[in-house]
Design goal:
The protein is mainly alpha-helical. It is 51% helix and 5% strand. A 3-stranded antiparallel sheet has the order 1-3-2.
Amino acid sequence: MPKDRALLDWLRVDRHAATSLQQQISGQMRNAILDGRLAPGTVLPSSRVLAADLLISRGTAVAVYDRLLGEGLLQGQERSAILVATPQLRESTRTAANAAIATDAGDAASDVDQLDRLPPRHAAFMPGVPALDIFPATRWARLLSARASQMSLDVVGEFVHLGGYRPLRRAIAEHV
């Protein structure tokens, strides 16, 4: 068995559990990192290898790594491996996230601008990770806020239907 495959041989998934596979795997990896069983700097297997070993989809494996990257427990090296983050990197990630949250809550645009300036935590070209550095977050927040302030409360009940938003269902039915 290759070395990187044996690294996570203690991971177990229960397909009949109430929690999702992604939650099970990320929880076990999170605990191993925080307990010190996965030392800082440890190179983790690729998402393909993880998926093959656990007999899960690659999308689930990527989602596990993305979640732990977002939490600052892992770090991605550009076009290379995924490593267990060092405690200093974890702390700097936590500090940057807390600084963004601590901005003036009354000014939503300044919150979004602060989030725009956070350093990227994901490596380039990772599947499932959009190009957040070019996303117009400030404009998106402004448009979303304007639209939300125009919505009436009766619209909220529309989303309960499994088929989705009623006017959209009607428009699709008429078109088809």
